[in-house]
Amino acid sequence: MSLPIAVLLSGGGSNLQSIIDKIEEGVLDAEIKLVISNRARAFGLERARNHGIPTQVLSHKDYRSREDFDRAMVEAMHDHGVSAPEGAVIMAGFMRMVTHELLGAFPNRVLNIHPALLPSFPGVHGQADAADYGVKISGCTVHFVDEEMDHGPVIIQAAVPCNAGDDGESLGPRILKLEHRVFPQAIQWLSRERLEIQDRHVHLKFAGVPLAETPRVSVEPPCNALVWPPLEDGF
Ligand code: GRF
User: Fold this and answer.
1) Which residues surround ligand 1 with Cβ inside 6 Å?
2) What is the DSSP track for 77-106?
3) 193, 220, 218: which is closest to 204 by C-alpha?
């Protein structure tokens, strides 16, 4: 069955676009039932509309508490046919923390992407923080969401090299290219019920590439990345 999803975003929506593209290519078996933005001007809304996907703007400023805001989002998702246990919530550049109101309505069904190798550099400036720190490798992480920021069980990570002189602006696009590969892949694993959480460890069922055969992934701007677990065909 195709996975019913709601995508939450606050900005440009390039990750939303990568999800739409993989669905349209027929490699990601999911259906975006609703895109919610907390910002009316988010370009991601236009991307959704261009593909006939229903959108809703819910401003957090209109609610007294985070819980009230989350309840409104859950209601909107339910109204559009996204509910647990089948449905899932995809946070694709959504700049708000979510509470137990949303997480309780979708237990282990909320995914987020973060532009750094967690647990390093959580927060809103992951790329710039990593570059400023002078790390030699950074990347991105797709994880289940819990009530702490950028904290839940890790599903997939991709690593890219960083150079002296890199800053958030040069490192960001390199990482973003990989976000567009790993996020649709993680959603497909969820769609196929292949993700099993034990404590904070996520096991990918039916995976089988030995570490020694780890494929490198090339992305533009030119760089080789390491992605683990490996991307499957089409991603
Ligand atoms: C991405 O870098 C994502 O990792 C972070 O917010 C950014 C969203 O970018 N959480 P976009 O709106 O998908 O282009």
Assistant:
1) 9, 11-15, 44, 92-93, 113-115, 176, 179
2) HHHTT--TTT-EEEESS--S---HHHHHHS
3) 193
Question: Which residue out of 60, 80, 100, 114 is catalytically annotated?
Answer: 114
Residue numbers of the domain that contains 44: 1-107
Ligand 1 centre distance from Cα of residue 14 (Å): 7
pLDDT digits (tens, 9 = 90+) for 66-98: 999 999 999 999 999 999 999 999 999 999 999
Mutate to test the pocket of ligand 1, among 10, 43, 179 (most ligand atoms within 8 A of CB): 179
Indicate whether 70 and 171 sit together in one domain. Answer: no
- 10: CATH: 3.40.50.170
> Is 114 in the active site?
yes
Model's pTM, two decimal places? 0.96
pLDDT in tens, 116-156: 999 999 999 999 999 999 999 999 999 999 999 999 999 99
Q: What angle do CA 169, 174, 179 make, to 5 degrees?
A: 115
